[in-house]
Amino acid sequence: MWWRSVIWTGVLFGTFAWLVPNVLWLLSWLIGKLFTYRVPYAPFGWTALSILLLIWGCLVYGHFLGRFSIEVNQVEYVSHDVPKAFDGYKVIHISDLHVDSFEDTADLQKFIDKVNAQNADIILFTGDMTTGSMEGIKLHEKALKSLKAKEGVLSVLGNHDFFIYDREYSNDQERCAAADRLTQYEREVLGWRVLRNESYQISKGNDSIVVAGVDNINGGQGFQTIQKGDLSKAMAGLDGIFTLLMTHDPSHWQAEVLPKSHAQITLSGHTHAAQVRLFGWSFAKLSFNECDGRYDQDGRMLYVNAGTGCTAPFRIGCPSEITVITLKNKN
What we know:
Strand order of the largest sheet: 1-14-2-3-4-5
Order of helices and strands: HHEEHEHHEHEEEHEHEEEEEE
Helix content: 25-40%
Structural class: alpha/beta
Strand content: 15-25%
Oligomer: single chain
């Protein structure tokens, strides 16, 4: 139940916050004993209580309000590489739906309606449909089927989509079989095009662009996850074609995408921007070099979407994100 997650999260963070001033007081008290100096407890106690109430208040806000707020970010990618026929082409990038974190389908539908309102040419979803349950996806099937764009929805699989955190599956073979079932569900029930180390070409007149997608690959940052992606297979035969690459984990960009491919735009998620931003700073920066928003290198762009759903039941200063990327031909 969701309330259990909220309570345990509050207890964990609150207890740690409460302990810090009390431990500092205890150390000060012991030192004071050595030098016959009395250290008053009141300032430490009030500080501990204030921090505890602040954290509990933030968690309550983050659970009941913060995780349902939505942010639409507009991004332009301007390059000579963009084919003229695709000047103004609108790409919606979403990630990390984690649909089983939504208790009420209406909350997920609100997000999807806002995506649809952007009137995109194509929607690219960079993985983690679920946290670890196929049943959670089926509960929101109607909402997911309503996600629409002119060229449809393309997706890849993230680390959670291989059910590596689900105790129901005891080995890699079972987890991969579950990922195959999820792929089949997205393709046949939702009508999405799932790219499993493959690509999809879109043509307008004599011009074309390609969307390539890989299964989850970890590039050596953050926590280690399942390695199922094959970049060379996904990019085979695409030399000279403008390419958008979907890869769930942003650490893949520096590790392999930049040195071993020509993909002009790379789209990722995975980090959730830690679901907490303080004055615009994300805790995900402690684990990932590229963790939140836009990064550019040598005319190539990585965009890391902050995600939609949650793995912990709150978002604080970090709304669910819809990224609108408009391609621009640089004359």
